[in-house]
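User: Hey, quick favor. My workstation is busy. Could you predict this chain's structure for me?
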Amino acid sequence: MKHDLNYYKHPQQNFTKEMVNDTLKYQKKYGFEIGENNLAVDNESDAFRHTYMQAYLSLNFGNSIAKFLGNQHEKSGLQTNGQYSQSSNMDLWNNQQGREIANEIRREYLNFNKLSEQQQKDIIAGKVVQRMREGKLITGLEDPREFQEQKLQLPFTPTRGVGGVDNNGKPLGFAADIDINQLANMLGIQLPEVQSKQDSGLFGYTNPLTGSNHIYTREEVGSMTSDEFAKHEKEIDAQTKYFNGSMPTNGDLQREALTNGGVVYVNSYTRSDGTEVRGYYRSRPRF
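Assistant: No problem, here it is.
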């Protein structure tokens, strides 16, 4: 995509308006249902817009951030705007389809970020309409399918420079650092209140035994081989004692990272000697 994060920091650039205008443009091209007075609610136009927008966000900022923002938007709609649960189910289903489309594009277009913005949008829109015509999108509240929560794709899969990737999309192995609050504000999404960051206990953490800022999660430890666990067992035990016998989950640290808290996620990468390093969470410096 041509937009970097600065695009979303300028009020004169209205992302929501851009997505609505794109929906109207592609409706004229493909002829899907738009609704009376261009009202895109609980119909094919609504399905297109959610799917298209999630694919767009995923290709700019990664699947995890796109899903986080999409979920928060639906929670806000249910809690404060009186949105029907069927509408939320429809939106969550189509949001997932958008992230799947982003994954397809990453696989099929290795030089996607070198295309013009219009070419990129045309590719996304074409794939959304294809899924709509194949019946993979929910286009009305009468559809009986129910969205089943899926795990977020980790690590983040950002594009051009956000989070550290080269021109071919290969992670460079340093942490993504995106102002999720600023991005959410520009998208009109209300994020939940979070604990004061300096009170989270994660800023400036270093392992008491090794001094490493790597923070192990339950899922990370659970996926280790016997040899890997034996290698890191003392370090893991030292971390567990530091946190009074508890160990965070991926979800715990993901929420902390997405709200600019005490941790960041480091993408997987390959060292110069060919060693593969898995993605992991690390603490942010206190100052």
